[in-house]
Amino acid sequence: MQFVLQGDDISDLPVGDYLDLLRDFAVAIAVFVVVYAVGRRILLPAVERALSTQRVQEAVAARW
Q: Membrane-spanning residues where (predicted)?
């Protein structure tokens, strides 16, 4: 893309550049969804298992 933006005005962009921006936005959303799903599926259960160990429960009980 060879253009210069004046301020925040993107109304002078060619249609192809709008499609590029739309594609980039869609890719960003897809990456977020994948990272979120992996976090929910893999990381969250691992954290829950780690927090439910006897040692952690004893430490929490000692603090309260």
A: 21-39
Are 3 and 18 spatial neighbours (Cβ–Cβ below 8 Å)? no
C-alpha angle 13-16-21 in degrees, rounded to nearest 5: 75
Is the residue at 42 inside a domain? yes
Q: Is residue 14 part of a domain?
A: no
Domain count, the chain: 1
pLDDT at 12: 64
Residue 39 included in any domain: yes
Whether the CB-CB separation of 42 and 23 falls below 8 Å is answered with no
**pLDDT tens for each residue of 3-32:** 555 555 556 667 777 888 899 999 999 999
